[in-house]
Amino acid sequence: MSSQPFVFEPIASRAPPRPVGGLLPWLRRNLFDGWTNILTTLLLLLLLALALPPVFQWGLMHAVFGADNAACRAAEHHGACWGVVAEKYRLIFFGRYPYEQQWRPMVACALMVGAIAASCYRPFWRAWLLGLWALVLALFFVLMKGGLVGLVAVETARWGGFPLTVMLATLSLLIAFPLAILVALGRQSHMAGIRTLCVLYVELVRGVPLISVLFMASFMLPLFMPQGSTIDVLLRVLIGMTLFTAAYLAEVVRGGLQALPKGQIEAAQSLGLGYWQTTRKVVLPQALRLVVPATMNTFIGAFKDTSLVTIVSLYDLTGALQLALGDADWRKFFFEGQLFVAAIYFVFCYAMSRYSLWIERHLNTGTRRE
Asked: What average pLDDT does the segment 190-218 reach?
């Protein structure tokens, strides 16, 4: 047995763990992770350094912001003319709606956007939210249509601009979503008649472009109406957009239904739940959670597709811009007007995209892996 005394040798301290939160870790993880990522990041930074200064000078430094046509023409080749927006913003936002009554679409649009914003937060997900939506929709049409409480009547042919875009997108999605769920369930039905009807509806509607659907709803549908009866063009367009959106949403929902494990349905049946109880409490909540990104993608597409209603002489946001650019004095500054409208579409589509990500994180708290 060795008689040498035991000598304690401490282990050298290790470096502290690298932080995983904050700006520098995020940059290291997303932009400078590996040599290919570093080269790509540096190349993009170089392109931005070359492109941003001219864009900044054109869009801000040398731009004309006042409604001065002479100044815009003088700065035509080296600065943007945002004066076209300052001069024509009321026509762009409200279309051909009577000038002195444009406070009505402004209030109506604010009410609908407020209802949409309220519907996006969990504390408002209560039964009274349906009543709020019924009230908002009633106020929207009373304000826009008039003829009640002393408001001047305005025909739907003169509705336009941003309120028309918001109304068409919102109503078509509100009506199309439950219809899409029923069609998706119909395609999964064991009854051949219901399944065949749902398949025919989806394939026929998806097989034609939205422009064709709007054209048929606006010009062909009245031919099948009884003699002397008619349907308002705005209602016909809304029906066409709703049916078109529902067909695409139905396939999205069907994808979620097919992705659901069969054991979930068998477990619900073993507990004695009926078909509609199983569908409402077990199947649909899980299926809809699985297809949140695809559903929001359809919502964004429907919001942008409202620009196609100009084919039936309804002037939404983009159509109202074309009306504004009909002025010969401002026609040559169409690029700035298009950028302004594109910025509005981007803000709303980006907000929907970010809300979709929040919904995914909110619904996947029990299943996601960090």
From this structure: 89
- 164/93 Cα distance (integer angstroms): 9
Rounded alpha-carbon distances, angstroms, from residue 338 to 10, 164, 185, 221, 319: 70, 18, 41, 33, 11
Identify whether residues 179 and 297 lie together within a single domain. yes
Q: Structural domain of residue 148, as residue ranges?
A: 98-153
Q: What is the pLDDT of residues 119-151, one digit of tens each?
A: 988 888 888 999 999 999 999 999 999 888 888
Token pair of 127 as six digits = 């039964």
Indicate whether 75 belongs to any domain: no
**Whole-number Cα distances in Å, 187 to 190, 241, 257, 276, 296:** 9, 21, 10, 16, 22
Only one residue has tokens 């402004």, namely: 106
Cβ-count burial of 221 within 10 angstroms (0-12 exposed, 13-18 middle, 19+ buried)?
A: middle
Least confident of 16-30, 154-168, 287-301, 305-319: 16-30
What share of the chain in percent tops pLDDT 70? 96
| Residue 137 sits in the same domain as residue 192 | no
- Mean pLDDT lowest for which of 14-28, 128-142, 242-256? 14-28
Split into its structural domains, the chain has a count of 3
Q: Model's pTM, two decimal places?
A: 0.84
Q: How confident is the model at residue 370 (pLDDT cuts 50, 70, 90)?
A: very low
Instruction: Over range 331-341, report the average pLDDT.
Output: 89
169 and 302 both lie in a single domain: yes
15 lies in some domain: no
The answer, yes or no, to whether residue 349 has pLDDT greater than 80, is: yes
User: 315 forms bridges with which residues in the sheet?
Assistant: 160
Q: Is 78 among the domain residues? A: no
Q: Which of 306, 333, 238, 348 is nearest to 95 (CA)?
A: 306
Dihedral, CA atoms, 291, 293, 296, 297, nearest 10 degrees? Answer: -110
Burial state string for 184-215 with b = 16 or more CB within 10 A and e = fewer than 16: bbbbeeeeeebeeebeebbeebeeeebeebbb
Output the CA angle 128-178-318, nearest 5 degrees: 90
Q: Is residue 158 situated within a structural domain? A: yes
Distance between CA atoms of 332 and 212, rounded to whole angstroms?
31
